[in-house]
Amino acid sequence: MDRRRFLLAGTQVLAAGSLWAILGRTAGSGDPVLPGLDEAWAAGGTEGARGEVVGAPGALATAGGAGMAPRTPLLGVAHGPSPAAITRAAVDALGGMGRFVSHGARVVVKPNIGWDRTPEQAANTNPEVVAALVKMAFEAGAKSVLVMDNPCNDPRRCYQHSGIAEAVKAAGGTVDFFEESRVRKMKLGGERLKDWEVHPAIIEADVRINCPVAKHHGLSELTLGMKNWMGSIGGPRGRLHQDIGTSIVDLAAFFKPQLTVIDGVRILTRGGPQGGSLSDVKRLDTVIASADPVAAEVRGVILAGRKPEEFAYLAKAAGRGLGRTAWPVEEEKLLEVAAG
Amino acid sequence: MLRRIRIPVQLASLAVFLYLLVRTVGVGEDRLGPPVRIFLDIDPLIGLTTWLRTGAWHGLMWLSAVTLLLSILLGRFFCGWICPLGTLGQATGRLRRPRSAEKQADRYRPVQEIKVAVLLFALGGAVAGAQWSGILDPICLLVRGLAVGLGPGIEWTVREGAAVLARTPLAPITEPVYRTVRDRLLAPHPPHFEQGVTLALLLVTVLALSWVIRRFWCRILCPLGALLGVTARIGALRLRQDEGRCTGCAVCTYHCQGAADPDVMGGWRASECFVCGNCTASCRRHGLAFSFERPRMIGIMAGLAQRMVRSFRRESASAPAASSPGAAASAAVSSTAASAAAASSSAGRPADTMAALSLTPPAGQSQQPVAETADLTRRGFLTSLALGLASGPIARSTSARAVPRGSIIRPPGAGPEGEFLDRCIRCGECMKVCPANGLHPSGLEAGAAGLWAPVLRARLGYCEYHCTLCGQVCPTGAIPRLTPADKERTFLGLAWVDTGRCLPYAFATPCIVCEEHCPTSPKAIRLVEAEGRAADGAVRQLRRPTVDPKLCVGCGVCEFVCPLSGTAAIRIEGIGRTRRENPFEISF
Q1: Alpha-carbon distance B187 to nearest alpha carbon in chain A (angstroms)
Q2: Does residue B265 contact residue B246 with C-beta atoms inside 8 Å?
Q3: Are A112 and A151 in contact (CB under 8 A)?
Q4: Nearest-10 crossing angle of helices B196-212, B84-95
Q5: How many CB atoms neighbour CB B62 within 10 A?
């Protein structure tokens, strides 16, 4: 990064931070209750791994409230009927896209487009969430925004029926297919994955935005951001499942996203990761954003009504310095976004 | 003049054919846009044999009757103007251009009658139970050879070539072009087919034979050409030869595509003529022209009726000893067939069978062209028909035993094996369009009658749950058109867990990849909690995949994604599913 870009980015962060401070004082002191989240929230009031209180409803009133230091929050959690609006709000809570995307940056957004399913079936990332991220990246001055995944089903059907290809193109982004002819064997330097076939477009980008959907999974019970990197690699991916926890931490450590946005608009509670039945889909209308992939993951677990302790890979990821599994409540910013 | 129209038409036809072939690919939509199978729909050999086999025409196959009717008027125009294999063969032949000194009259060879035998064999087979036309038809041969044989190599070259170019400074230009081409014309994943090399070699050989004799396939082997030759012969198109202008220079025969003897006065062969117009264009003295006459069909019909009446009288007069040696199988049809042969062979003079098989043109062609009389002999006619008739039961007898074999899994919605093979013409369109590369040409495991018919090889690809493309491209309805809703309830087979190989069973190692990919809702593969003991005695809590046979549709994605090397630990088999009619043959 040259000096000019550094200064520019610094100014942007400062500006965004001060903007947040001003907005936070006014909006944050409003009604903090998130009615649609009651169920998930109940499960959220658990002790974090290090004994700090995480996302307890009682603490909401103080989150981002008056008197707190105007620090950039660790997590932005937005709830509301419009997937695009809550995505924007959650990222804005962190200081806006400008904090992550500098002018002229090449951005990759990595959603989950794994299955030939419709958005209502919640097996893929919500197209509106993806499109909102693409738009925000361009607003922040991105030179290019590439959206891609390595789906399990016929990639064309997945891109089409997930609604993501169309939404991204409408937002001005580029959609590309994952091609095995383009992968390169790279050193992952992981605990289990020493080297693997990786798509260079993802690793060569300046900014990686991980954009998974939270959903049920037969092996890991729940799949979120770290497992989403499976869609950025080629090779015999099925083999990773034999020690999936270590594998996905290795992947997360390698890909190191600048921003993680977890789509909790609709989540699959059963029949994941592919779903298919609308009765297994629960609407949570929530989006979680964080620069810390582990914190986002932990928050996603809580959102889905599960306890972070049940997922050993989270502690493993934290142990490898990828992020935090617990945080003081004031580092979490909760937003209720009305329609419109 | 004729030639000047013919060449652009021919090239356009080839271009349309190739375009439709590459567009036989799923682009993510449920429905396939372009009419990719139109060349198979207009093919009269496929139309005729399918009608003989099934008594019905599927979809647009009535168009093949239009082709046949048109060829009564226009002769073998299909061969000269439309057929893409003919055009390609012609192009290959042109690669080897004889120097003008080497030019010699390219005259009719008796060996050209082989194609009539091939046609009779195909028709006999169609009557008796084997759909050979799929293997013998030129359009099927070409579609299969390109889509299944050469296509994968071409796609690989395009992909890898683009990947190389992407690393050069040319990338900003090549990449957008490549992406457009890839997303519209290439398969979602680089395809691969079993027997691809064999089918490619077959096509290459057929084309390369044009090197030896111009349009070798079209002149000598093509059963469709033979069929259209019959209609041409009884049709209305004639070559008017002006004897007064002919100097016997034989230039017209250098250019004649079909070796139809345009310079033999009164000996021009309608059944060999592709109506290419080369002779009329090349005759320096303008002695040749095409014209229409009263279709000879009318006279032949009358003659045929007369002969039949006469032979019927003769037979009823003599003793009823049915003496047709060597053709016992066709005893019932022999009398009519024989009279038809006598009628259709214009001269009826029996030529030597050995001569009919010699590759060299008859001697003495340079100065005094004489009409060769080497129509298929009555014996040849009967032998090929009898062979065809006999081939049906022989082919069937093996496939009948193969039906219960679990490894044979046909495309979604295919009927019972016999019914399926009756319709399937092995064109390979379904294999080309399959987005998951699951359909492959089968070998002989389904009997000779099942050669190259599509079979789902779940270790190599699978059946995409919502996809209905194979039924949309099938020209004969062997694979029915299904709505997505019907497709999701169509049973192809059943998945069986091999607990001796499956990791959670065999090695107490966690793995759920098959369950993850199982597309039904609720999932047909369920994870059952169990305690497993590893070899070192360690007890582990495991989730073991267990198949619910009532939910499993047999799409094969589980077998495809099973992460074991070699044989999968979960495999689909046809056992328990006899396809459409009774999905629960075994009660679970």
Answers
A1: 10
A2: yes
A3: no
A4: 60
A5: 13
Tens of pLDDT, residue by residue over B160-189, are: 999 999 989 999 999 999 999 999 999 999
A159 alpha-carbon distance from chain centroid: 19
Locate all alpha helices (DSSP H) within A94-163, ordered by sequence: 127-139, 155-161
Residue to substitute from B155, B462, B465, B548, interface A, most A β-carbons within 10 A = B465
Sorted by where each begins, the domain ranges of chain B are 1-238+351-362+373-484, 491-588
Q: Is the ipTM of this complex over 0.85?
A: no
Task: Enumerate chain B positions whose Cβ falls within 8 A of a Cβ in A.
Answer: 26-29, 159-160, 162-163, 166, 179, 182-183, 188-190, 435-436, 464-467, 503, 509-513, 515-523, 527, 543, 561-563
| 8 Å CB contact of B516 and A273 | yes
Q: What are the pLDDT digits (tens) for B233-284?
A: 888 889 999 989 998 888 898 889 999 999 988 889 999 999 999 999 999 8
* Residues sharing a CB contact under 8 Å with residue B118, sequence separation 6 or more, in sequence order: B136, B221, B222, B223, B226, B384
Distance CA B256, CA A120 (A): 64
Domain CATH for A65:
3.40.50.11440
What are residue A244's phi and psi, to 5 degrees?
-65, -35
Q: Which domain holds residue A267?
A: 3-336
**B279, B251 contact by CB (below 8 A):** no
Alpha carbon distance B375, B341 (integer Å)? 10
Q: Which residue out of B27, B31, B515, B523 would a mutagenesis test of the A interface target, given it has the greatest number of A Cβ atoms within 10 Å?
A: B523
The reply to whether omega before A236 is within 30° of 0 (cis) is: no
Number of domains in chain A: 1
Alpha-carbon span B447 to B492, nearest angstrom: 20
* Greatest CA separation for chain A: 55
